[in-house]
Amino acid sequence: MTSPAERYARWKTEAEQERAAVELTAFTARYPFTLDDFQLAAGRALEGGSSVLVAAPTGAGKTVVGEFAVHLALARGHKVFYTAPIKALSNQKFGELVDWLGADRVGLLTGDTSIRPEAEVVVMTTEVLRNMLYADSDLLVGLGFVVMDEVHYLADRMRGPVWEEVIIHLHGSVRLVSLSATVSNAEEFGAWLQEVRGSTEIIVSETRPVPLWQHVVVGDELLDLFVDADGEAVVSQGPGARGDRRVNPEIERVTSFSLPVDERTGGARGRGYRGRKGTGGRHRPRGSGQHRPPHLRKGRGPYEGGGDSGRGERSGGGGPGAGPHRHGDRSGGALRPPRRPDVVELLDDAALLPAIMFIFSRAGCDGAVQQCARARLRLTDDRERREIRAVLDEQLGGIGIEDEEVLSLDTFRRAALDGFAAHHAGMLPLLKSVVEALFARGLIKVVFATETLALGINMPARSVVLEKLVKFNGVDHADLTPGEFTQLTGRAGRRGIDTEGHAVVLAGPRFDAPAVASLASKRTYPLRSAFRPTPNMAVNLLDRFDLSRARETLETSFAQFQADRSVVGLARRARELEDTADDYRAAVTCDRGDLLEYARLQEALTDREKALSRARAERDRDRTRSVLGDLRRGEVIALPGGKRRGYAVVLEVDRAVLGGPQVDLLDTEGRRRSLRPGDVPSPPAVIDTLRLPRQDSLGSGRVRKDTAAALRQRLAGQDDDARAEVRRRAGRSPSTAATDEQLLALREQLAAHPCAACPDLESHLRWVGRWRKSRGELEGVQRRIRGRTSSLARQFDRLTDLLSELGYLAPAGPEGEELHPTASGLRLRRLFSDRDLLIAQCLEHGAWTGLDPAGLAAVVSAAVHETRRDDRAPELIPDPAVDAALAASMRLAAALQSAEARHGITPTTAPDPAIAAIVHRWARGAHLAAALEGNDLPPGDFVRHCRQVIDLLDQLTADEELGPVARQSIRAVRRGLVAQEIDR
């Protein structure tokens, strides 16, 4: 028999569920279709008072769950925050919610934009919410729900930790709605959420709502990647997907052909559907096409039917048995990927437009647009061109004539009118939003984009094309992971728009169909935490909690949760490596002598050779410093390579600069560059002199171009390869390897060793290498095991020791057993930046005082910038105060790096003034073209960088000394196109 209290509790629960069911029913009435099971399950969980983690494929409708959280919060009289990882997504969601709820109920906070922050529903970036939590903002009062869209973003190395800070610090009464792409460890992530947030329902859906077909383009053919036993195409994901699929054997047959060019009909055929300008698929409604293009349907040859009757004849025959000559361009046995305009025409003929073609470089995206323009590709009719022109005139009318050239607006307009465009981070955000709007309306048919487009922007495409399966990850060129492949191809076929989606991979050299099939079959990827303690986090935690509580907070992070769980797996791996190392050690034998002794001698010999090479390089650096210091204005020099190459003329030599001398150069293209000893591997060679104009006149672009022309004329007859000229005139320091006694002795010992005469020496040494590698892996695993337990707390302790040493924390409590932020620490508490501690040091030591608004903007630019490319040298700023501030910042950075190294902390990167001069000119009132003159900085990068500069300047407005100048500096930077972008 139950007690009255238990009966009351059951009645209350049932009443709440009944009331909640009413809200879910009312919400679903908004949609003309029935919600999916995972959406309904998430809604019921939210109604029952739980938080939810929803992991589902791209385009499956996760945002419906977030919108129901908004509905439920408003129905219950609570506030709701909707967070997104980037401002573009925040702006997009803000517009959607305003359309739904009305402008008076929705606010927006993105750092540089504040619209109705006290509204019932506020859209914001995750960083804004983190800052509100640390400041204990009044806007948090009444908060009932937080929606975290794209929560898998917490794996991002730079910005991911912010997500965990928010999840950890949100009040326990707030229900969390976490929306993620499908990840393979959703249960692990959900278990952590349950641990730190309480009741959390984990809802995983692995089914795409729209079927996805996978294809491969080989030459001028579009082939299905997966087929069944009868050779019929098979859906790879979504409704209709089958498990009995296999890789299409036709792909292997086609890609195996290797014929010389002259054996193909008509010689070199660089294009497939020659003469077609994209008419075949333009007028077909989205989703109307069959899963295979008309020319590949069963019973047809690749060129039979479907329109152009002349294609088969031009291609040398029509049917499947026409021979290998029809399978694309192969020269010298290598399979070449098709030209981009040909790919677009092929997709158009197959009714697979609109399409997004992912090209993993900005230059590649712009180049694709140029190639399509040169091919005179036109994908639009007259009506569509009129609509596009109207949008362009309306959206781009505010751009000044003086800026049109630097933005390449003529090229952009012509391409858009023809139905194609680029989309990448180097473009002005305004231009990207125009592309997104035109693509969403079906007016632009093809977008050439970098992978940043895959992050949730609403651009529905019927097909997605991957030009390559390799991309540069910031360190080297690496294969796409299954998660990246899934994220990119997941944009093909959007619910409510398309009946199917198509993912297309272009076959090129070393194409591996099984590898592509493997990528297409693995639809999940693991979520790994990037959380780490930062100086700003440390002072914020210790301003709110004692040391013990602060450490506990770090220990509740997903990073520590994963680390603790992984120790078991690491221990198992260590045992496996121990067994492997023992097996390899048993195989390290030679009947001639001690093989390990021979290997040690060989290693010592290699180490000595490297030491001599380093010593030689150091001598070269010393010579370089000396040669640079002796250069004179007007001398023409040949550069030996490294970060600088080619020819240049010396404009000025600064022998007092830190890390110098620093030489100001003008190259043959009229670009100003600076040269320091570390930029070249050996000294440059002086080959001539050139009469220069006055130093102050070189600020003019025309004067620089004229001077560059004179330089090129003076270099007439010189070797085109400046490095060869350097080798003839200067060369490197001589090698000492031939006379080094230690090296010679090691070589003699190695030659005299008994194992040197063993005929199987190479085989024996391979076993030594395997043993060493396994031992190294074992030691690495053992170090990871030792470092896992309480690893974040130990990092935090090292960080607090450093902050105490620098004066940002001081002992507190009766016996000084606690730490509390000092006045300097409270200033650091307000600084949110990757270089937060360095910025605080600059403020603490007055490095930025005395600057005018433009000068402060330039110095702040260096504090927030990180160069994307190694070959952009900082341009000199003609303001001694700015030069002094940058030099002081560099000195403080060097001192901070030394202190961080002593405490075992990853050093903070030094300020990067690569584009400070551009920001300085802009803040002094120059228009965009003048500010960017002589530089190759993309306008989109400049606008985005100005946003970062304004964000840090805004943080400095609270500073007693710099505040007034910071406010003036914000006004100087936030103008023109920058202001237009921020205010949009």
CATH architecture of the largest domain: 3-Layer(aba) Sandwich
Helix count equals: 35
The H-level CATH homologous superfamily of the largest domain, spelled out, is P-loop containing nucleotide triphosphate hydrolases
How many strands appear in the DSSP assignment? 28
Number of domains: 4
The shape is globular
Instruction: Give the C-level CATH assignment of the largest domain.
Output: Alpha Beta
Describe the main β-sheet briefly.
Answer: 8 strands, mixed
Termini gap:
64 Å
Query: What is the quaternary state of this protein?
Result: single chain
Structural description of this entry:
The chain contains 35 helices and 28 strands. It folds into four domains: 4-204, P-loop containing nucleotide triphosphate hydrolases (Rossmann fold), CATH 3.40.50; 212-521, Rossmann fold, CATH 3.40.50; 591-759, SH3 type barrels; 830-983, Orthogonal Bundle (Sec63 N-terminal domain-like fold), CATH 1.10.3380. α29 (853-864) packs parallel to α30 and α33 runs antiparallel to α34. The strands form seven sheets. The chain has an eight-stranded mixed beta sheet, with helices on both faces. A seven-stranded mixed beta sheet has the order 10-9-21-18-15-17-16, sandwiched between helices. It has a five-stranded antiparallel beta sheet with strand order 25-24-23-22-26. Mean pLDDT is 82; it is low at 258-333. The chain has 984 residues and is of the alpha/beta class. The longest helix has 36 residues, at 595-630.
